[in-house]
Amino acid sequence: MEPVHYSVQGNEILQIFRENFSKEDAVLFLDGTAGEGGHSLLFLQEFPNSKVILCDRDPVMLSRALARLDEFKNRVVPIEINFSEIDSDLLSSYGVTDAPQGILLDLGISTFHLLHSGRGFSFRESEPLDMRLSPDSGLSAKDVLNTYSKDKLMQIFYKYGEERWSKKIAEVIVDRRKLNSIFYTSELADLVSKIIPRKFWPPGRHPATRIFQALRIEVNQELAHIETGLISLLNLLRLDGVIQVISFHSLEDRIVKNAFRDYAKEKGFTLLTKKPILPSEEETKINPASRSAKLRVLRKTKSVDKKYRREDFEEEEESDV
Length: 321
Fold this sequence. Notes:
Shape: elongated
Order of helices and strands: HEHEHEHEHHHHHHHEHEHEH
CATH topology of the largest domain: Rossmann fold
Largest sheet: 7 strands, mixed
Distance between the termini: 49 Å
Strand content: 5-15%
Strand order of the largest sheet: 3-2-1-4-5-7-6
């Protein structure tokens, strides 16, 4: 039996939208990370004249969210897409000609993915090392572990997992795969557990937690999608609209914090959260997975100077290398 699904910081997110929109308004929301559909359910219930553009890169999650929102299906536009690929042209192709007024990104990995997807996101069960949020697309975690060079593995473990034992873990993985490829989560979890001395295990967490996080970020290119997607969505947002983003670790939060700060300084946006909103003590007791969540909010108060073009952003990135 699957656990009860909780919408992380749902009360806080709903309150912020209440403060900026009237209940009677015909608000167009964009949920860029549908997950189980919990946040969108709150929007549809609270704003009876609203519509939701429901997006997720994982067709399984999108299907689960749609099933949950079935009673509101006439007010939902489902799109199987990574939020980083959303722009006005894409929305137009689905018959959406207006810009969204409320945008939400919940950057956390869902409980379903961790416990029930069978894709190897967690070390709790012995599952194939996949970790792809878009099934059957791109490299799997198994591919990364068994083909990347020692230096490249060390780099992603350190950069995306902030793991101090990155060098040693990469060395052991490369030596191990000369004998046998690493296929299962249990193999990787056991290997890391033996490398890191017990006295250095993080309190209350499995010693392989950081390595699993790093692999997931690499496989799904999560940080790159956040950087690109935020720029696109900030420019897509309607004037007087509000965007809310929940991050779960420092690497994500740093990107969100810097983008929001820059747009507040240079693009005519207003920062509604000088410090991130943290989950309440009550919420963390009910849903311990929410304890690391940080919510940041930005309001669009002036028009953006130029229309966002993906190729411009990519050229700027290349010039910085």
